[in-house]
Amino acid sequence: MSAPTGHDRVRAVADAVLYEGYLLYPYRCTSNKNQSRWQFGVLGPPGAAAAGVGEESVMSCQLVLQASPAATVTIVVRFLHLQHRGVERAGPGGFVATDELEVDGTRYVSWDEAAECEISAGPFGLPELFAGQCVQVDVDAAHDVEALGDAGRLVRTRVPLHGRLDLAAERVDDLVRLTLQMSNTWRSDALPTKQTAIEHSMIGAHQIVTVDAAQLISLLEPPDYAVDVVAGCVQQRCFPVLAGLPGDTDVALVSPIILYDYPEIAEQSDGALFDSTEIDEILSLRVMTMTDEEKAQARATDPLAAQIIDRCDAMSPESLQQLHGVLRNPHALSDPGERLLPDGRLVPRLDDEIPWWTEEADGSVQPDVDGVLVDGVLVAKGTTVRLRPSRRADAHDLFYAGRLAKVATVHADVDGDTHVGVVLLDDPAGELHEWYGRYLYFAPDEVQPIEPEESPESAGGIGKENPS
What's this model's pTM, rounded to 2 decimal places? Predict the structure, then answer.
């Protein structure tokens, strides 16, 4: 089998984003959990969010390009369109709607499915993007009939969707900042209900951005020359990351889920389970515990649910075992530099012959004294730093970007990695967190030492500076 290309990898991750939360275990229509699905990237019709029956109608993002005059940009918009599948039984007077029908041992139930929608726009040259472009994203209504022999039929219906993709570009220094805004523009004279809102929503919406004669700049770890331009980018309900094979700079995935650059599907995963925040091993084991009747109900709801049941039934012990106990680190930590004590001595490193759990090893670690060099500056307890989260181990780290913090502890873990524990300066509960040791932890290259004159403490107050 040939190795997957960058395009294959982008599509695989995009499909995972598209269906994230589409099905929820235990996949049966009789389960209360399945009565309301919860997915990311839902663009509801205008007014749905204000009425409390749907999601906001807009998502937008900005990307940064290093582009030649001949550069072009192509956008692929993808989302799911709710599709109602009705079951009808054949009778003397014609077809009659029914909740369930069994034909040749296969059960069918009336249920909401989804149809994939994909619309490509471009390629657009830079002059077109500087002038601004508007692309209509419309999907026609549909009414499809699937015969079930002489017993009945399935009738699938979809309402129309209307949307718009707005593109604009501007020059910032020697780079180009590209703005994408995806909007749901469907309107009705009547106030939206929960049902009409989801019917007219674009679900799992995301974009794949491809450039030619240009390079996309990482927004998570930009090169020094692009840091200020990237810092000025604004994202609303979506997060662009570099995609494809590591090192590719011609494709970005604009995802409603926070991802790291070059996301990939774990090779241990045999197939999607379509459950939001899925854990493959646990869900597979739970599916295996379902009774035959429950499995039959699940198969009847959705073809994708039937695939999950069949795959779990056929799973070998070896396939199940590979889902267990695998540790993955998408970005291995680089050496943050030598760790120093305030008097200039190196922090004692653990001897390989001394077990890390022993008292002798524990005594060599002093988190309230230890320090680490960052950009040639000693960072230790009391140092003021600006936070620059980049590793994305925790999505909440994004909210701390640019904030000022005071270092409370520096220590190493048993793997030899260094961690800087901090307390936010503008946190009203900061003193309390520091008192009982509830710190935020960052890698050394995620903190930037602040000169004393830059620190808000030197001005007689804290929390007065706006994050950059």
Answer: 0.68
